[in-house]
Amino acid sequence: MDDTNQRGFSLLNSSNENSHFEQSVRLLAESLGEGLLVVQAGKIIFHNDLLLQILGWNQGDVTGKMLKELLPVDPIHEDYFRARDRREDGTLEEKIAELRIRLPDGRRVYLKNRATRVVWDGVPATLHLLEDISMRKATERQLLEQKEVNSILADVVRRILASPMSLEEIAGAVLASAMRLTQSQAGILMVNGEGGRRILQKQCSRHCRECAIPGILDKIEASPYLMGQRRPGRIDGAFYLNEDLPVTGTCSDVSIVKNILCVPSESDGPLSALIILADTPKPFGPWDLDSMEKVAEVLSLALRRLHTLDDLRRAKDSAEKQAEARSLFLANVSHEIRSPLNGVLMMASLLEDTNLDEEQQELLGVVKFSARTIDRLIRDLTDLTQIRTGKITIYREAFNLEELCRNILETNRPEAQRKDLSLELVVDPGSVDCVGDRERIGQVVANLVTNAVKYTEKGGMKLETVAKGSSLVITVTDTGVGIPEDQVDAVFGLYHQGLVNGKRRGEGAGIGLAVVKELTEVMGGRVELHSSEGKGSRFLVTLPSIVVRKAVEPPVQGDLPHRARILVAEDEGVNRLYIRTILERHQWIIDEAVDGVEAVQLASRRRYDLVLMDISMPRMDGMEATQKIKEIHPYVPVVAITAHGYEDDRKEILKAGFNDIVLKPIDEGLLQKVLGRYLGTSELSS
């Protein structure tokens, strides 16, 4: 009610008790923007013309008629009219209510009714001011419906985006939301793909032998009349149709579908969809179609996302397969290269124990240095692959750090002597005995020492180890060419090769320092570099996870049986020669097999105290041979001899029944340590 109407209503109230009241009502009736009605004993005794427009009444049908005859209200408002009767009795002064009225033409409107007790011709009466609020109510209803639509759509989007869902799960969630919004009794969601059109989800209150909706769609498309009765939406192909549609032969409980709504959902991928709803309590309208088009857009988003995820999944699977293929290729190639390389190293070790003059010893040192450089390069490549694929495993074992560092310096001594460089080792007594991954720590130190020797032309290199609490700090300092300040951060990058005065500092693959950094970080440590061009470099490796122990029990020595019988299964003659030479120094009895078949045959004829078994052999590999030997002699220790050091390989080897693993190239000291572990306490067979 606006200000003018409010003032008029107040004036009527103020003049209620005087003789001019009826005259005031008649004068103000036509100036009010609301319908005015005076009722006395339930009978209409006065109204204005605007009331007739609001209620759709004719002039002659109003005055003198009973209000209930002309103004039937919904049952929920009956209490209001009972209150009206009390109002005329003077027991209720004023009442404001919102009523839903059924008009003579069947329409329903909402009225705001403000009523008060008055005296008309000396008799109590009720004065009503009626305002048509149907538009406001419709707007409020639309806002509530839109709020519900937005809430349901938000819930569907949240469910779809919260976790990966299959196409069937997405279709089920979308269809359930669509049926909830429209109160449909039946609904299907169909997809069009490479296999043609098919129903993906169906929800229906009936038990159908076959869904009737696809057949109804075909009937609509085949009928010019029905096609003309459709009400299209903004999406191409969307429509609703409020017609009785006959059902034949597909549903046992229904013969007529009252109405139908269809909305397509397109996507950029190979799939498109149709949302089809039917049988609602009230006819479909533009509001339903608009809501379903929004649902279809959500479905399109989900289909595009699903297609994108499928593409990403396929790309991921392809990348993993390629990475696995590269890893397998690298493993196989490295094995093929390292097998003859191991032969070179092992024969060089045996040759070193012979009577050589000084020049021959020097030449042999160069051979061993070059071979170990190749071996380290192959190991760096395989370790990088393990790190990048998450397959690397860090082991913990007791080892002597000083011995490890001396072996690394001795390996680099021939090259240092050729350049007339000094090699210095300073080991803090507290860092001599450690627990950690001996092989990985040795690889880090070896790469740093070899780099220092490679890029130093005069002066020398110093290797230091210091224990700081439970941490180990390894420092490698050289007097070489140094690293320019702008390249300090880049030297740990893969394939980086530093430049000095615009030229490469030296030969190499550019992966050594990358391996140092990544291995150190895998072990929980960090590496730092301090360098100045022309003044040398200083690398500091801190390994906080290394537990430095004051003492480590030395391995058992001199307790090995003198006449133990050992079976060596190895297809490479060079490897057999190297192993046999080492074992014969202890006067052990050695039997040799060139493949797994021969190893099983020998084991079936006699019992061995220990078996050294190569993994890769013709006819029968070491895995199968070991399993067969374990069936014959369950307690005989079998040690794998292999160049495969991946964690997956280790697990598979140990799972096959092997007791231990010795990696190629075989280190004589490590081999003897493993032999002592099993033969030092074993009882010889009779």
Describe this structure in words.
By secondary structure, the chain is an alpha+beta fold. Helix content is 44%, strand content 23%. The protein starts with a helix and ends in a 7-residue tail after the last helix.
- The average pLDDT is 78
The structural class is alpha+beta
Spatial sequence of strands, sheet with the most strands: 7-6-13-12-9-8
Number of helices: 19
Strand portion: 15-25%
Global geometry: elongated
Unreliably modeled segments: 13-18, 499-506, 551-561, 681-686
Helix content: 40-55%
Q: End-to-end span in angstroms? A: 118 Å
Largest sheet: 6 strands, antiparallel
If you compute it from the alpha carbons, what radius of gyration comes out, rounded to the nearest whole angstrom? 47 Å
Total beta strand runs? 28
Concise summary:
With 686 residues, this protein is an alpha+beta fold. 44% of the residues lie in helices and 23% in strands. The longest helix has 67 residues, at 286-352.
Topology overview:
Layout: H1 3-14, H2 21-29, E1 35-40, E2 43-47, H3 49-55, H4 67-70, H5 78-88, E3 94-102, E4 108-120, E5 123-132, H6 134-162, H7 167-182, E6 186-193, E7 196-204, H8 213-222, H9 224-229, E8 231-232, E9 239-241, E10 245-246, E11 256-257, E12 260-265, E13 272-278, H10 286-352, H11 358-388, E14 397-400, H12 401-419, E15 422-427, E16 433-436, H13 438-454, E17 460-468, E18 471-478, E19 499-500, E20 503-504, H14 512-522, E21 526-532, E22 536-543, E23 547-548, E24 565-569, H15 573-584, E25 589-593, H16 596-605, E26 610-614, H17 622-632, E27 638-642, H18 647-655, E28 660-663, H19 668-679
Parallel strand pairs: 15-17, 24-25, 24-26, 26-27, 27-28
Antiparallel strand pairs: 1-2, 1-5, 3-4, 4-5, 6-7, 6-13, 8-9, 9-12, 10-11, 12-13, 14-16, 16-23, 17-18, 18-22, 19-20, 21-22
